Amino acid sequence: MAEASISVDQDQLSCSVCLDLMKDPVTISCGHTFCMRCISGCWDEEDWKRIYSCPQCRQTFSPRPDLCKYVAFAKTVEKLKKTRLQAAGSGDVQCDSCSEIKQRAVKSCLECRICFCQIHLEQHENLFRGQKHNLMDTIERLQELIWPQHDELLDMYCCTDQSCICMMCLVEEHNNHVTVSAAAARSEKQRHLEKKQREIIQQREKELQELRTAVASHKRSAQTAVEDSERVFTQLICSVEKCHSEVKQLIRDQERAVMNQAEEQLERLKEMIELSETPDHVHFLQVTDLLKH
Asked: Tell me, what's the pLDDT at 130?
């Protein structure tokens, strides 16, 4: 809302004589307001006829009215000036025709070589109506488009030397060179850059696709390696468990064999003890003979 208010004030606070923000504003009896210097200058030219008119509505006055500074109006103008000064660092190109606080330029004229705000652009168009002045979007460094040696616009391009030139350069130094208009050279170079950009994008897309393919292949290889390692380790674990089981079984079998052998020896020892204690000599002799065999 504040920006809209400032925009309205800017139109209302412009002097219709100089088209700039009013300086020392005064209001005359018809209700219109002007810079004191502007209305005084208009009336100075009308002194000879002793009838003074309003530059805006053409109402006449006689005698010449006294002018007093419109204090409230002047404060409003100063407030707008401060608002513009605060926004001066925004990077906008300034109007070259504004005599007071510079307004933002909206167009640049290559013939006049200056930048115009909207108000001064309208004044410029009225002044050069019917003439083909080359207007373009605002250029921050307009003088860079002018070749200082000839003070001419750099509107040609020398393909031989690959440099921007003016019409005088074309006549004096580049008359045997391959030259085109700056606009045509720009179009050609832009097509070349766009082609190069497309090629780079296509190359990057190809590289990206190759990278994606390589990543996918690596993932598959990694997954296969993991599965193979799991299979190998599973087989190894099974083999170890089988060996472990076989060793345990062998130990048990050996233990059982040793125990059986020990029991047999104990049994024979018991029989021999019993035999040695028998009082039957014949039985003793017969059994001992059997034991020999």
From this structure: 65
Residue pair 14/22 in contact (Cβ under 8 Å)? The answer is yes
pLDDT in tens, 231-250: 999 999 999 999 999 999 99
Q: Which residue has the tokens 């219709």?
A: 16
Instruction: Give the model confidence (pLDDT) of 260-271 as tens digits.
Output: 888 888 888 887
Contact criterion met (CB below 8 Å) for 147 and 156: no
Task: Report how far residue 226's alpha carbon sits from residue 234's, in angstroms, rounded to the nearest whole number.
Answer: 12
Q: What is the pTM of this model?
A: 0.37
Q: Per residue in 111-149, is it b (16+ CB within 10 Å) or e — as a string?
A: ebebbbbebbbeebeeeeeeeeeebeebeeebeebebee
